[in-house]
Amino acid sequence: xxxxxxxxxxxxxxxAPHYDRTNTVLSMGNAILWRAATVRAVDPLGGERILDxxxxxxxxxxxxxxxxxxxxxxxxxxxxxxxxxxxxxxxxFIEADAERLPFGDxxxxxxxxxxxxxxxxxxxxxxxxxxxxxxxxxxxxxxEFSKPPVALLRAGYWxxxxxxxxxxxxxxxxxxxxxxxxxxxxxxxxxxxxxxxWIRGAGFTRVAYRNLTAGVVALHRxxxxxxxxxxxxxAKRKGNATRPIxxxxxxxxxxxxxx
Length: 259
Ligand SMILES: C[S@@+](CC[C@H](N)C(=O)[O-])C[C@H]1O[C@@H](n2cnc3c(N)ncnc32)[C@H](O)[C@@H]1O
Fold this sequence. Notes:
By secondary structure, this protein is of the alpha/beta class. The protein has one domain: Vaccinia Virus protein VP39 (Rossmann fold, 3-Layer(aba) Sandwich). Helices cover 49% and strands 19% of the residues. It has ten helices and seven strands. Strands 3-2-1-4-5-7-6 form a seven-stranded mixed beta sheet, with helices on both faces. Strand 6 and strand 7 (217-223) form a beta hairpin. The site of S-adenosylmethionine has 21 residues, from helix 1 and helix 4.
């Protein structure tokens, strides 16, 4: 499945008004636990500047700001950003693409993304941008759907995603085709180990993950290195590696029908 940015932005524009309610129902209340675990992993401190990428309506951002951090919420869907500004006037929302963040190098103490990386056309480019805008020593936290490692649970989960979820979504007033896209994007998303490799490939160190709800969701963490020699070697390696990574992700699909 390929994700064309315009189609993804349009789809989120459509679901924006019902987005949070549908998530709470579909996650059977687990979304609240996943968000709390994400905030603990980010560990926001008063006065820190924290970037929430693909922040949507700001539900992920508002929990971070409660600890006194200055949170910047970025999303490229005008509908999600408008809904977020309405709900959370104290959060700074910026409409921008995660693959081209409108910030300088080394600006943020922590960067986080919840349920967003999977939707981004080129997740490698987004990881590279998150690395760039983080200060040396800064924290990365990624909360994303993943793959339950136990086969039986995984089979039940796939059935839930493809049959139950679109049906529940239509009852709660959401566009059910958007939730069919969600199911497909989760199935095609890399597992915990592969995502860890992607994060390391972007230059992060101390990469680790922990499963939530038996691996339905995984919380990945990493750090931008502090050591100047390590930073320089990452920069050199990325200079050499940029082209192959982009080629791999940008290959045009034969067909890309999207809800
Ligand atoms: C499932 S929502 C998650 C929203 C929020 N982080 C949360 O946890 O509720 C995914 C968001 O990713 C955004 N998104 C997808 N691709 C993006 C990109 N390239 N740049 C910025 N935002 C993007 C969509 O607009 C959507 O709001």
